[in-house]
Design a protein that fits this description.
- It contains 21 helices and five strands.
- It has 451 residues and is mainly α.
- The strands form two sheets. The chain has a three-stranded antiparallel beta sheet, covered by helices on one side.
- The chain is elongated and about 90 Å long.
- It starts with a strand and ends with a helix.
- It comes from Nepenthes gracilis.
- This is DNA primase large subunit C-terminal domain-containing protein.
Length: 451
Amino acid sequence: MEIVRSQRKSPLPIVVSTIPLYRSTPELEVRLEDFELFAVDRLRVLQGISHGLSRAKKPEEMEKLVSDLWKAHMRHPLASEVINKDIISHFVLRLVYCRTEDLRKWFLAMESTLFRYRFRSESFEAQRALLAEFDLPYKAVSIAEFESVKEKLLQVARSLGQPQTSVDVLFYKVPFEEVPELVAGRRVYIQKGHAYIAMNQVVSLVVTQFRSHLSKALILTNRKWTSTIREQEKDRLTPIVEALSTSYLGPDCSQPKEYAEISLKDIDQVAKRSFPLCMHHLFEKLREDHHLKYGGRMQLGLFLKGVGLKLDDALAFWKAEFSIKVGPERFDKEYAYSIRHSFGKEGKRVDYTPYSCQKVISSTPGVGDHHGCPYRHFSEENLRASLSKMGVSNRAMEDVMEKVRNKHYQLACTLTFEAIHGSSCDSGINHPNQYFAESRKILLPKNNSAA
């Protein structure tokens, strides 16, 4: 796949099945802007799938969710280009997510889930065509062999509440280790090390094959990335690739929205009631130690800027705290410039935006640092203590801790929000400033009505 800056030439027709298997890098020219835009669109689909899975949606709910996400984000003005967008976006994200074990694991799980539900939505004929593309060494069970195991297959069907198995149903006999999820769920008949799977269960077999191929491909891509691509493309593609895995794809949180403005006089009360745990912890540490290291200052400072703290108030806020420890003169000399810089008033005058959950989660705080995501970096004991202090009940806390153990940190934050506010947040928490804005929407009407 070649990346070009000029207008894309008309590609040669590509003969592919309804769902590509992404076996080899496509011979396509891709405009630099499409390289990123296509990847972002697919990433929206994968993040939507991740949220659905973490919410434990049922298979039929996931099927609808995947279909809706695909229709919403993977469209193209030219119908002939939809398949190219599909292929290009997959390979771009393969490059993005090959770089660490955690990234590979997430991408592998989401792409496999996407493939599963796309396969399930295909017609019987399309499924058989895709099965043939895998070139698997399995043949359909003959009528004679089917008759010999028919009663056992009927027992399995009855135990699953499925219709009676008939000779018209196509079955395959495969090594049982190739359909682990069916074996684990006791949804197949096993004899002499082989599982008999019906055509409507073939999705488990092809997903296993798809996942195995993609897993190996990610390792090979990582080797290419570290050995050549990263250095060769350091001035063009590398910055895009390294930024995509932590991209925030939700609404703009760089400016305060309705309900989202604070002043110095009520900042402590607002922090206690409406700051997410990551910012609540930083705020408390600032009040306690009268100092934060650079990572903490940036994370909290940009958050406060995003919820409406003006530059003059921000300077007064930080100076009041830091002066207790370092004195007002040293603050003016060493710290004030950085605050003005974050507001775009110094240096290159870039108007910096608040950190998203992805960026907060991906940070790696060192000794003495307090930034990052508490759901990821706190010990269980410290996390429980912090959540209890915020008002999370014991019952809700167990749900939060379960999500933390499964590394669903944003959902853990979402459950914390719901427990504290007594209100659901179906969209999930994807940004600390979103948490704040949603909190104020809930709390301020109650305050006004009480008044």
